[in-house]
Give the backbone structure.
Amino acid sequence: MLLRLFKCLPGPAFTALAFATLASAQTQQPSPAAQQPAPATQPSSQSGSQSGVATLRAGTQLVVVDVVVTDRNQKPVHGLKASDFALTEENVPQVVKHFEEHTALTAVDATKFPSMPKFPPGVFTNYTPEPVNGAVNLLLLDALNTPLKDQALVRQQLLAYLNATPPGTRIAIFGLTNQLTILQGFTSDPTILKAVASSKIGKNSPLLQDSVGGSGIQNSMADDLEDQGGDATIIANLRQFDAQQQSFQLQLRVKYTLDAMNQLARYLSSIPGRKNLIWFSGSFPISVLPDSTGNLPDPFIVVADYEKEFRDTVNLLARSQVAVYPIDARGLTNAPIFDASTTRNYAGGRGISRMTQDLNKFSTDTAAEHSTMSQMAEATGGHAFYNTNGLTQAVATAINDGSNFYTLTYTPANPARDGKFRKIKVQLARGGVNLAYRHGYYADDPDKAPLATNGQAQSKVADSAVTAGARTPLQTMRVAMMRGSPTPSEIIMKVAVYPVGPSTQREDNPASGNILTETVHGPFRRYSVSYAIEPADITFRRFPDGKIHADFELVIFVFNPAGVLVNRLSTELHIASSLDEIKKNVARGIQYRQEISTPAKGEYFFRIVVHDLTRDRLGAVEVATSEVKNLQPPTAPPPPTTPSASPAAAPANAPAAPQ
């Protein structure tokens, strides 16, 4: 029988959760009844569910389509019903099985929630007083395709938006150079986001012709030689070399950017629901066309076409329910020939020709870059913003649109999973509205590799928007442990993270029970992690022996800044006590303490998770070592060599919880 939510207990409020005294929470012996382990013949609920129960696999295919509906003024349209929508797949009408409207939290609603409690340094929680919006938002600061000058503008405008972020808006920040980097995992705390946006300096892209921005156009070596009446063959060869170099750099930018988008799609595919990717960039063209100036001996030497790779990337984003909102970080752009810093020689008979070539190149390149943005946005259900200096408003519009949407779910009338592309069309009976949604999907069979297209296989990533059933516990746990992913709050928790010993203390070996990856070596820095877990969020069951049982695990993963796992620690705990003992010992939260090590040099990130094994519920927080490495460690004797069998039996004699 389930004793859910401790209805028979006083039920501590969140702010009443207290940590066990760090010096003694685990050194005192729990009562004998609490120490008694569960019978050996009784498996934990997790293992029992996996090994003793037959799994039935559903054969129903569901397609999920998120639709953003805006009026002529680009304002969200609310209050629509399922009957207002007409949805077809390959021109065949479909029956909407599930319909839901998602709306952002209004400023008026936000005033109804209490403020976030203040904690001392080293104390962290996954509690938020206001509900989070349905969608999550990821800001991609693209330094690879954006000049330094424009990167500075992006950060300035981003800070202006963060100063007025709607409550409950979950945002993560990533950076792109020649690789993808997590700058900040998902959080709804604008203070943390503003600190990241303020502290990270711009990066100079080695693959941009004008990496700083505003440098205009200068004479090339071929121009100088031409102005001096040099040999025409040498001049042509120099221009060909320059063109090849520029084409090579552009192709590298395309490759690095598409690789990063693929990484993001895979990263976000595990997170349920809609994801809004706001991409600040100077963009890139999908195709590099033959030279049209007539100056190159071989005009086709610069040709490159990434249409196939681009299409596959966009399809992967759409399958992962990622709506892309590209924002041209350059704002309003003018042809560089009019820039005061331009020094190219436009005088004489050759001047008109050079000016015409530069104007045509600017127009062609800009149109191609904006086309890339528009295609990516349209295919994923987002919107592209360019030719505007109002980047703050563009971000606000993107997040607002992406937080106000309708979810339509249907079972395709054609059940065949043949790997072919299925076109989706959504219409409203009323006029004067704009609809943004993904326009199709590949009907892949999850048990088979996707069909090849043009001789190349499609991505093998599962279509998260075409699902055959509920998420498995393994999938749920994997998302909870992902570096930078949204922290689940099904289980409310506080953790106190402190270094063990002074800042100069180093150890040759990691803490007991730590499992290092093969490439990680000492010296190490050790940290203590003390838990205070809301007991109302843990499942307690009464067994025939009259005792109350609970099964859960505490897991810590350590990641480096690139998101690579370097260490982990997992402790599975079983409570078996009388109701009176549990009432006494968890009145101020379930308390426990672990120790985890990181390499002494560099920054690392703790992903700390509580997992209720009975009902597969999760709580998690993420802590950077830079936030705690210089804190004064608590005075405490060494922790016990073996954990207590019942953390609920630890004495609840801790000081008052931090408010």
About this structure: Residues 1-15, 21-59, 449-471, 637-659 have pLDDT under 50 and may be disordered. The domain at 136-401 is CATH 3.40.50.410 (Rossmann fold). Residues 232-269 form the longest helix (38 residues).
